[in-house]
Amino acid sequence: MDAMTASAILADHCAARGLSVSERDDGALIVNNPLHPRVGEVLTAQRGRYLTDYGYEIGEHGDEPATADRLVFLLGLPCVPRQPTARTAEAAA
To answer: Are 47 and 38 in contact (CB under 8 A)?
Structure first.
C-alpha cells in the first residue's frame, strides 16, 4: 500500500465519485454531499474496517472502491462511472 494510508485511498475514491472529503485532526474522514453539505458521514478506520460515527461498518480496508460506492449511495449522489485518479494510478504502478 506504499505511503498511502487506507483512509487516504478511500478519500481519493470518494473525491473521484464527486463527494466532498476532508480530514479531521484525529484522522477521521468527513464525507459530504457537495449539493447538500449537511448530508454527510464521519468515518474512522478501526481494526481493518471503516465505521460511521454511529458505529455502522460501511466497508473494509482493501475494498475502498466498493466502500466509496456505498457512501455515494448513502449520501444521495448519482452513481458515476469510476475514473482512476492520479494517486490511485500511481499506487497501482
So the answer is: no
What is the per-residue pLDDT across 25-57, written as a single tens digit (0 to 9) for each?
888 999 999 988 899 999 999 899 999 988 899
* Model pLDDT for residues 51-90, shown as the tens digit of each residue: 998 889 999 999 999 999 999 998 988 765 555 655 655 6
76 within some domain: yes
Residue 74 to residue 28: CA distance in whole angstroms? 18
Q: Is residue 1 part of a domain?
A: no
Strand order in the sheet with 36-46: 20-23, 29-33, 36-46, 49-52, 57-60
Q: How far apart are the first and last CA of the chain?
A: 11
Domain count, the chain: 1
